[in-house]
Structures are given as structure tokens and as C-alpha cells.
Design a protein that fits this description.
By secondary structure, this protein is α/β, with parallel strands linked by helices. The chain has 6 helices and 9 strands; from the N terminus they run βαβαβαβαββββααβ. Strand 2, helix 2 and strand 3 form a beta-alpha-beta unit. The longest helix is centred in the middle third of the chain and has 16 residues.
């Protein structure tokens, strides 16, 4: 299955928190969107690999993505090595996305920056035909996405562009709440974490409104770039 957009991010729930409304918007426009998590989030304080897998699939259903997979790299200990680059390259070549969305380049959680670098490097290397990868015994064709964009996470970051996601914010928040073990639940007996505090989802909401306000919309999601995108027509910008 060829995808238009592939979201490759470190942990289950990164995609939803970082660009869930952008995913929902593009699915509604008929684009094929997929999510691949690099790790199972097994080092997370709350929940288990099994509960997080079930939550990830529930969130994927809410957003309407075409595929959701997990590369099962080691949470906290994966790195940007040739071996792990090949794992990501294989995924990119399998789905041949036109565009990849991934983690923030620098963030509170070290896996986010590591994931951003691993994915960005793999996207470039995936276009080199002399790097061979195989799927089901068949040699894969080289494939390089046309663009790699990094969504904004914990650190307050000035975006390079903002997507108007006003009509799709409810789907984003519903997909986030699908991770029942991870976010605020007054009945939970598990330890409190950075994202399980009552104010965390309020912060997500406030940031969406702030980014939306910056472009004259109700809600927005921001992205940064390593390589600036080009336009053929100034009227593509607003």
C-alpha cells in the first residue's frame, strides 16, 4: 500500500499529540495516511506494552489512518545506527510516502530528538539504490520522500509553518484520550507523570488555540523543517 503521508515517531501517542488533527484533516481529504511507532513505549511509567498497543490501535481507528505498525525498537535505547536506519528505511520503502512527519528535533524526552534524527537520516538514505533492503525475500526499490516535517512537542518552539486544523481538533483530542492509561484519570492508582497531570491536556488545547490564532484560525498545529519547502506560486501562501 502506497501512502501519501507516513508519520514515523518514537512512541505510541507521539503522533496524536504532535499532529493528530493534521492526520485527521488529510484523511478527510482522501489522502492515505499511516502511522509507524518506532518503539512500544515499554519504559513508560503507566500502562503496559499490551495496553499501549490496544490504545494505539483505538487511536488509529479514530483518526482513520490506513495502517498502524510498530518497529519494536528499544524504548529509551534506540539510536541512529546503520542497523536501525535500515529498519526505518525498509518501512519507508514499503509504503513509499510522499511526505514524512516525525518528532521534534529537540525536546524534553531524549527519544524525540533521537527519533527525529533517525527518521530524517533514514528518509535520505532510503533514496540511495546501493543500500539494499528486502521485504518478503524481494529487493525493495529505493524511495525518498519529497519532504520531512517535524511536529512540535513539549518544548515551546517557533514553527516554520502552521496547519489550520480547526475542523479536526475534536478528532485529535478523542484520539489522545484513547490512551486511557497515559493521561489524567482520577480513578487511576498509577504514579503521576508529566503527561498524566490534569493540566497537560489543557496545555495541548491552549497551544492548539495559540498556533491557530497565529494564522487567523481557531486551531493550528505547527511544524519545523530542516530544509525549507518551496512554492511555485506566492498565492499558495497565506
Amino acid at each position: 500500500m502506497k501512502l501519501d503521508i507516513l508519520v514515523l515517531s518514537a512512541h505510541p501517542d507521539d503522533a496524536e499529540l504532535g499532529c493528530g488533527a493534521t492526520i485527521a484533516k488529510h484523511v478527510s481529504k482522501g489522502y492515505r495516511v499511516g502511522i509507524i511507532d518506532l518503539t512500544q513505549g515499554e519504559l513508560g511509567t503507566r500502562g503496559t506494552m499490551e495496553t499501549r498497543q490496544a490504545e494505539a490501535q483505538a487511536a488509529a481507528s479514530i483518526l482513520g489512518v490506513s495502517v498502524r505498525e510498530n518497529l519494536e525498537l528499544a524504548d529509551g535505547f534506540f539510536s541512529n545506527t546503520p542497523e536501525q536506519q535500515r529498519v526505518v528505511i525498509q518501512a519507508i520503502r514499503t509504503y513509499q510516502p510522499e511526505m514524512v512527519l516525525t518528532n521534534a528535533m529537540n525536546d524534553r524526552h531524549p527519544d524525540h530528538g533521537k527519533g527525529a534524527s533517525l527518521v530524517a537520516d533514514a528518509c535520505f538514505l532510503s533514496g540511495l539504490s546501493k543500500i539494499e533492503t528486502h521485504l518478503n525475500g524481494q529487493l525493495q526499490k529505493a524511495w525518498r520522500p519529497k519532504a520531512v516535517y517535524h511536529f512540535i512537542q513539549s518544548y515551546l518552539t517557533v514553527p516554520d509553518f502552521v496547519v489550520d486544523v480547526s475542523g479536526h481538533w475534536p478528532a485529535k483530542m478523542e484520539s489522545i484520550r484513547a490512551y486511557r492509561t497515559q493521561f489524567f484519570d482520577p480513578a487511576s492508582k498509577e504514579p503521576e507523570t508529566f503527561i498524566s497531570k490534569p493540566g497537560f491536556l489543557q496545555l495541548v488545547e491552549a497551544r492548539g488555540r495559540d498556533l491557530g490564532y497565529s494564522i487567523g484560525a481557531e486551531y493550528g498545529e505547527g511544524f519545523t523543517v530542516r530544509r525549507f519547502p518551496g512554492v511555485e506560486d506566492l498565492f499558495q501562501l497565506r
